Amino acid sequence: MSNDRSAVPDIRDLSLRIHGSHLSVSQFASHRGNAPSSERSQILIAENNMATRILLSTSLQREGYTVYAASNSDEVAEIIKQHGLPDLAILGMLNGGQDSFAVASDLQHRGKLPVLFLVSSTDVERKGEGLAALVNDYIPRPFTVSDVLMRVHHRLMQRPANTDATDPQEVIIDERLRLNVLQQYVMLDNEQISLTPTEARLLDALCQHRGRVLSPGFLLAKAWDTLQGGTIQSLWVHVRRLRNKIEPDPQHPRYVVTVRGQGYCLPWRPEPEMITQ
After folding, report:
1. Is residue 220 part of a domain?
2. Partners of 265 in the beta sheet?
3. 0.90 exceeded by pTM
4. What are phi and psi of 42, to 5 degrees?
5. How many Å apart are CA 215 and CA 133, to the nearest integer?
């Protein structure tokens, strides 16, 4: 083993204790990384596999994040008690106590924070749209560290920014498009464009589950008033109108993308092969 101490993650406050193949409550201090210390985002990782937990923790630390790691729901509760809610949570399989879905539900009730799920294909098939409604994004196993880092960075960039140039209620979709769902408008190339309440909720649902294909039924439940209701035909109409407002080329959409036989998706990046007319 190398004696290079710079390759070993710093540990602070709570000691690293190994019981069998799992870590008990542990907190990995952040490396200096690229982020200013006053601006470091706090990330919670809850995963029962020690190797996965350490891999994600050290990778995120090197990016300048402060990371708290847990292997079960009791440790999650202890971390939140000591340090408050994180800026983002990554949840996998947990030991005993509440399962990951219960922890995700609890986190969402405590505060609106991004939740990413590490899931198997069986979880996706079993939970279906319930998973989509509970978390912001899921990461299929096996995953790459670069994919996790990209998704974490994107979700944190989507948080409202308190700057003079950006309204604190705006969600950044990319460099040319921002959404304010409360005031029902988008900023497109610095031009404000009004949205209907349904259009705003529709785009917000796609933003909150970016990278996921959302079924028509899911979008109807998210975007339509329960008293008013909606139909597949009305969804098509609103999708067309929304595209006309925000797409550079509505006939070849990059934001509200149709996935044949499944629904709609806001991709991480333009993926023309997904689009069907």
Report:
1. yes
2. 257
3. no
4. -100, 130
5. 11
Distances (CA, A) of 113 to 71, 86, 136: 20, 8, 9
Residue with structure tokens 């993650």? 9
State the residue range of the domain holding 258.
Answer: 171-274
**Is 166 a domain residue?**
no
Q: Is residue 164 part of a domain?
A: no
Q: What are the tens digits of pLDDT across the range 19-75?
A: 223 333 333 333 333 443 335 789 999 999 999 999 999 999 999 999 999 999 889
CATH of the domain at 231: 1.10.10.10
Residues near 267 by Cβ (< 8 Å), separated by ≥ 6?
Answer: 210, 211, 254, 257, 274
- Rounded distance between C-alpha atoms, residue 203 and residue 219, angstroms: 10
- What is the token pair recorded at 271? 């993926």
Q: What are φ and ψ of residue 197, in 5° steps?
A: -55, -40
The residue type of 143 is F
Reported residue count of the chain is 277
| CA 139 to chain CA centroid, nearest Å | 10
Structural domains counted in the chain = 2
